Amino acid sequence: MTNATLTTDLTAISQNWQALDALTRCETAAVVKADAYGLGLEQVACHLAATGARIFFVALASEGAALRRALGGDAEIYVFAGHMRGDTDLIRDNGLTPLLNSPEQLTRHQTNLADHAYGLQLDTGMNRLGLEPEDWLALDHGAISPTLVMSHLACADDPDHPMNRQQLACFNELTEGLGYRRSLSATGGILLGGDYHFDLTRPGIGLYGGQPFDQARPVVTLSLPVIQTRLLQPGETVGYGNSWTAGRPTRLATVAAGYADGLLRALGNRGQLFAGGTACPLVGRVSMDLITVDVTELAQDPESLDILCPQQTVDQLADAAGTIGYEILTSLGPRYTRHTVKLGGS
Ligand SMILES: *Cc1c(COP(=O)(O)O)cnc(C)c1O
Predict the structure, then answer these.
(1) d(CA 33, CA 271)
(2) How many CA atoms, within 13 angstroms, populate the side-chain half-sphere of residue 119?
(3) Residue nearest to atom 11 of ligand 1 (CA)
(4) How far, in Å, is the centroid of ligand 1 from the Cα of 214?
(5) Residue 33 annotated among the catalytic residues of the structure
(6) 203 lines ligand 1 (CB under 6 A)
(7) Taking the CB of residue 2, how many other CB atoms lie within 10 A of it?
C-alpha cells in the first residue's frame, strides 16, 4: 500500500438522507456541490438517486452539467449561482434550473431562455445571495412562474440564535399565500423543526456525516500508510522549525500525507491519529506530503494510522484544526486511493 486510502460508505450516506427525510413531512433534496463535499459527485449522486432523491442542488452550472451526465433524465438540478453570463448553453443543454439571484439574472434568463424553468433565491438577511425584499416585492407575481422560491439561513447550526426566527418571519412575510413551492432549510434548518421545512429541504453536510446532524452515521474513513519509524532520544526535535522536542525516548512514525492532501497545517502539534483504539499525537509541523506521529504507546510499529475513523469524526478533526467539518471534507485531496463501500450500520 503506497497511497493513503479514503473510503466512503455510500450506505451511510443514504441512511443519513433517509434519517433527515424522516424528520420532515416534505420532500428532501440532496446538496452535492463541490464534488459532493469532496466525496465524489457521480457515485454519491447516483446512490442518492437510487435511494429516492429526485432533486439535487449544486453551486455552479458546470457542476450541474457533470451531474446531468451522471444522473441522466428526470432529476431536477438546481444551480445556486443562478444564471451567470456565459452559462446559458450549459443551463439549456443540461436541463439545469438556475436559482436567479438578482433582477439582472432574471432579465438575462428571460432574454436568453424565456421558456426554460428557473427558481428564485431571496435574501432574508444573510446578505450573500438572493433578491433583496424590495426587488422581490417589485416583481409582477402574475407574470413569473418559478419552480421554487428559496432562501438560506445564516445561523441554523445554533438553534437558539434569534436570527433563525427573524429569517423565518421574513421568508413567511415575503412568500406566504403566493402558492409557490418553497424551501428554507439546509441540514441545520431541518433540525429546527416543522416551521422551517416548507415544501422542500436541502441537506448537505448531514448526508456526509457532519454536524449539526449529531445523529449522522460516519461516512468517511481515511487511512494513511507509515513510511518509516525511528527512535528519538529526549531533547531531539522533529520537523520544520524544530517545533516539537522529545521529552522521553520516543518512537516516531512518518506518515505519507500532508497539507497537499487536506491535512490542514493548523493540525501541527494538535491533531491525533489512531491505531485501532489508541490515539497517537501528531507532533511537529504538517509538511506538504508528510506528517510525523508519536507512536510510543503502541506495542508494535504500525503499518498505517487512521485520521478519520470511528474514534475521530470529521468534526473532531475539524476542532483540532480550528475549523469545521465542511472544510475538512472539501479539502481532502486528489492523491488518495478512493474506495466506496456499502456498509451502513444499525
Ligand atoms: C451548501 C448549501 C446547502 C447545504 O447546507 P448544509 O449545511 O451542508 O446542509 C443548502 N442551501 C444552500 C443555499 C447552500 O449554499
Answers:
(1) 27
(2) 27
(3) 186
(4) 17
(5) yes
(6) yes
(7) 7
